[in-house]
């Protein structure tokens, strides 16, 4: 304990004959409360006690305003909450709401060892959590802005600099919790090589409630993704569907989750430009399509001699295999509800099933022929297992065709995302041509009436 020595003038002793001044040296110990004065050893019987605190009358006591009491209680509650979570009071005070120097937005500063970012990012990356808790993770200014423009509901936003936060539409973040964290923490939990310093947690959006800006440019063209398990391929398909002006995108239960971070990065904001309905049964898929739709399936043209395709297209069109093994582009086992955990049989079992399985009869057609003349749906199958039997049955039911893209000999097939982009833009071209032709006929008819 630190101590200081000072010269103290003792009390004045008053006598009848006069006054005597006596000087003595004391040592005063520095304590918080109460303060005691320690005297030398030969004066142990003399202890000077501090005077009692002065009692104030009720009229003289300071009056606290309601706002001051609320702020003090809030600060105390933060400290109590911090102690209950194993943090110190100083760390809790750092999490109190602050305001940037420009006064544009109020935010929280994360305390040291804050686990909120790590916990939310970890659970948002889990498909089970996204489906049951209804949360998605978006990273980057452009993707977050697209979600806010479409009307998605933000819950929490983590940012490293206030300038990064000002790049977002602040008027749409009033109900979200804004937390300022270190850039090193964002870099640890980010999937990007060069993070932008902003990560947001959104409620899982409902496609029927979002405001899509490109709805006025959409065509009666739907994309059905059947058992697409590669995140990059699915994201590219969604991006192509948005660019081609598709009306909607339907995903079967065998597809990868559309809100996976890799799919979001590959789609480049396509999730907020057209409706995407995930995890659908084939009965639900038919409910999302118009009644007069024609469903076509993409064919990799396996089992057919491609060297003679351009020379004799009539022979190709008349080729109607009767067994699943002759198709090559159809999965031999029906789609199940738990297709993610489906165990595929050995080659011998598959061959025995192929012999007794009869698939629907669907004629083939080259991709540049006239196949998109009315509301159309296009089914793209996965590269590993191909199309499901239900997709072929839907094509037969709606008088659809097997569309294939001719390639040079000794080339296996195109990437599923690349084939989808070629077929979607070909369907867009055909639908636009029909719409333009019908519009010209209607205009000419009106002119004849007024002439």
Automatic annotation (TrEMBL):
Basic and acidic residues: bias regions: 39-48, 65-88
One of the Pfam families matching this protein, by short name: MRM3-like_sub_bind
MF term (GO), any: RNA methyltransferase activity
Entry's Gene Ontology BP terms: methylation; rRNA processing
Signal sequence segment: none
InterPro entries with a match to the protein in the record: Alpha/beta_knot_MTases, MRM3-like_sub_bind, Ribosomal_eL30-like_sf, rRNA_Methyltransferase, SpoU_MeTrfase, SpoU_subst-bd, tRNA_m1G_MTases_N
Gene Ontology CC terms: cytoplasm
Domain (RNA 2-O ribose methyltransferase substrate binding): residue spans on this chain: 137-208
Location of region: Disordered: 37-92
Family: Belongs to the class IV-like SAM-binding methyltransferase superfamily. RNA methyltransferase TrmH family.
Protein name from the UniProt record: Mitochondrial rRNA methyltransferase 3a
Phylogenetic lineage: Eukaryota, Metazoa, Chordata, Craniata, Vertebrata
